[in-house]
């Protein structure tokens, strides 16, 4: 997994496969202290298992007062996917994070 701490957020990108990225439960056990962008642009499919894990991570992040954005080519047609912030480009994801930070500051 590629991990990069940016000025405004944490950027994570799974290298091999979505299953490898989440089987270790690394993300689920993290105590997030910043906003998060998860980059899945290189993957063709996000299944229900991954969406369920993403929802758990999102709940953890929002409980800590931050937001998570998932970047993917297409929005999967999976129940409860609307609960996640899904964006199709990295630039839009960074803009979303910036707007969430402005909103929190107000």
What is the overall shape?
globular
Q: Termini separation (Å)?
A: 34 Å
Rg, rounded, reads 13 Å
> Strand order, biggest sheet?
1-2-3-4-5
Structural class: alpha/beta
The biggest beta sheet is recorded as:
5 strands, mixed
Q: Give, in order, the helices and strands.
A: EEHHEHEEH
DSSP strand (E) fraction? 15-25%
Helix content, binned percent: 25-40%
Instruction: Compute the number of strand runs.
Output: 5
Overall average pLDDT? 80
Which regions contain 5 or more consecutive residues with pLDDT less than 50? none
Task: Count helical runs.
Answer: 4
Compose a concise summary of this entry:
It is built from 4 helices and 5 strands.
Descriptive report:
The protein has 106 residues and is of the alpha/beta class. Helices cover 40% and strands 20% of the residues. A 5-stranded mixed sheet has the order 1-2-3-4-5. A hairpin with a 3-residue loop joins strand 1 and strand 2. The protein starts with a strand and ends with a helix.
Which helices and strands, and how do they pair?
Blueprint: E1 2-5, E2 9-13, H1 18-23, H2 26-29, E3 35-39, H3 48-63, E4 68-71, E5 85-87, H4 90-105
